[in-house]
Write a structure and sequence with these properties.
InterPro entries: Aldose_1/G6P_1-epimerase, G6P_1-epimerase, Gal_mutarotase_sf_dom, GH-type_carb-bd. Its EC number is 5.1.3.15. This is Putative glucose-6-phosphate 1-epimerase. Keywords: Isomerase. The protein has a single domain, classed as Beta-galactosidase, Chain A, domain 5 (Distorted Sandwich). The protein is 4% helix and 45% strand. It contains two helices and 23 strands. It has helices at 113-118, 239-244; strands spanning 2-7, 13-18, 22-27, 32-38, 65-66, 91-97, 103-110, 123-131, 135-143, 149-151, 153-155, 158-160, 167-170, 176-179, 188-190, 195-196, 201-206, 211-216, 221-228, 232-237, 257-264, 270-272, 277-285. The longest helix has 6 residues, at 113-118. The chain is globular. The relative contact order is 0.16.
């Protein structure tokens, strides 16, 4: 096992992990996994070649963390969408080698006068990343204050695919979803078969199972997603028009990724009592 700490793109601190099972790149900025490559295989994650690497900007790709809210500011105060964790520096808390040959890296953030001015709750947030035969992620929120608070959150994961036209997402057949790309009026729809993507897709699936999969015909692989702590999942692809309007995406990048996000979104709101913690967990394997 080797762990190296380097200055990455934009001078941002990165942690490179290499062991017998896989290689990974983790950005300390944003607490964000940028790459997970099982030995002898292609990278599971997608990162845009035009991604920003600068403090105050979100990195387009990998596993951005949306916290302590997912989507628009829930209180309408003009705070940024998806919270304030994906564009700030985290701390490098711990690394360890595990008995099975995997490597765990723990990054974290604790509340400060700056965060309390944005969101008035005391917290300790950790991102536990275990690089092994699979990529295991745990987003752990501890309430260090004296009153309960509520959160929504997501691991907004960009999965690399060979060709979106040859890609399907399975496991959500028959599930109800909110179609945010269509109308956003709150009406739910029901998923028929596997999800295929041929236009903009922005859906919050409700009451989701613990196991989903991305079947990639072009790369001839299946990415399996297992999660816990969530009742919802988001499937997103911006498609051509929106991708072309994003300065940190190539115009055709939408053909090379699909976001399948492990979330507490919509009505899946988590209440964390004072002194308690909550774990949102996802595992990705090929």
């Amino acid at each position: 096992m080797t762990i190296t700490r380097v200055a990455g793109n934009g001078g941002l601190p990165m942690i490179n992990v290499s062991n017998d099972h896989a290689d990974a790149v983790i950005s300390v900025y944003a607490g964000q996994v940028l790459s997970f490559t099982p030995k002898g295989a292609a990278d599971v994650l997608f990162v845009s070649d035009k991604a920003y690497y600068a403090e105050g900007k979100a990195i387009k790709g990998g596993v951005p963390i949306c916290w302590p809210w997912f989507g628009a500011d829930p209180e309408g105060k003009g705070r940024p969408a998806h919270g304030f964790m994906r564009n700030r520096m985290w701390s490098d808390w711990e690394t360890r080698e595990n008995a099975d040959g995997s490597t765990t890296v723990i990054l974290g953030v604790e509340s400060s006068p700056e965060t309390l001015a944005i969101w008035p709750h005391a917290f300790r947030l950790a991102m536990e990343v275990t690089v092994g035969k699979t990529l295991q992620l745990a987003l752990v929120t501890r309430n260090t204050g004296d009153a309960a608070f509520t959160i929504t959150q997501a691991m907004h994961t960009y999965f690399a695919v060979g060709d979106i036209a040859q890609t399907t997402v399975t496991g959500l057949e028959g599930t109800q979803y909110l179609d945010k790309a269509a109308d956003g009026n709150g009406a739910t729809k029901q998923q028929g078969g596997a999800i295929s993507i041929a236009s903009e897709v922005d859906r919050v699936y409700l009451g989701v199972p613990a196991e989903l999969a991305i079947v990639d015909g072009a790369l001839n692989r299946t990415i399996r997603i297992t999660s816990s702590g969530n009742k919802t999942a988001v499937v997103w692809n911006p498609w051509a028009k929106i991708a072309a309007g994003m300065a940190d995406l190539q115009d055709d990048d939408y053909t090379r990724f699909v976001c399948v996000e492990t979330t507490n979104a919509a009505d899946d709101v988590v209440s964390i009592p004072a002194g308690a913690e909550f774990r949102l967990v996802a595992e990705y394997g090929v």
